[in-house]
Please model this.
Amino acid sequence: MQRSFIVLLCLGFAYATLQNYTVDDSSPDIQYSGKTFPCNITTCPPEATNGASNNSTTLTTGSITFSFTGTAIYASLDLIGTCSITVDGDQIANLSQTSTEALAGGLPDISKSDLANGPHTLVIDPTTVLTIIGLDHLIYTAILPGKSHVGAIVGGVIGGLVLTFGVLFVALLARRRKLIMRRNQRKNAVLRGITSARPDNKAAVDDGTNLPT
Ligand SMILES: *[C@@H]1O[C@H](CO)[C@@H](O)[C@H](O)[C@H]1NC(C)=O
Ligand SMILES: *[C@@H]1O[C@H](CO)[C@@H](O)[C@H](O)[C@H]1NC(C)=O
Ligand SMILES: *[C@@H]1O[C@H](CO)[C@@H](O)[C@H](O)[C@H]1NC(C)=O
Ligand SMILES: *[C@@H]1O[C@H](CO)[C@@H](O)[C@H](O)[C@H]1NC(C)=O
Ligand SMILES: *[C@@H]1O[C@H](CO)[C@@H](O)[C@H](O)[C@H]1NC(C)=O
Model:
């Protein structure tokens, strides 16, 4: 009973599906503290926007803040200068890049996964003056609403039912055993009474013919 309960509980958790959400640099959910320059196909040469998500990148000299609810965050950005990246105040990257390096290849994506599922805040902060940060897009991983809840609830309810039935079953079994034991005890007491009352005091099968008178 307990084992099936655990299996059902695991099934409930397996239903929780992770989903990636892309947030583009122009999203109003991203806060820019300083000056921004939207680099897109109308404001920048194609070489600057090609390959960027939605063909756009936001350039800024200030900090970038993004709050999300989930378990992971990925940042696709470019940089000339230095910047510090934190999640909930803990530094996840300390970057430095020259313009030559930026032209040569750029930065790999910054990521922080295995966060506790819940609200988190990503901050990308320039650490030196004259630093320019170019944000292409962010991706955060969240637990898919609906499916996961249904899975967890169904798992929980079934698990709960199994547990309840298990407890009831065990209780019934215990009660039955107790009743049988009590009945046997009573039977034994009667038998003992009968045997001790016999004149020869010998235990024998009571066939009703040699009862004491
Ligand atoms: C989300 O995106 C990141 C980066 O592209 C990837 O490593 C990760 O496996 C993705 N997660 C899901 C659940 O799709
Ligand atoms: C490029 O950015 C400017 C300024 O935000 C905006 O007015 C324009 O519509 C954008 N162009 C495209 C193609 O997104
Ligand atoms: C980005 O621009 C290229 C041309 O430079 C175009 O072929 C492509 O469809 C654009 N992509 C988006 C998402 O706008
Ligand atoms: C960027 O592209 C995504 C699809 O990849 C779309 O959902 C979104 O509306 C676009 N954002 C802008 C600002 O064009
Ligand atoms: C980040 O890097 C800069 C140099 O690029 C250094 O001065 C600073 O101490 C570093 N900060 C941390 C917390 O590692």
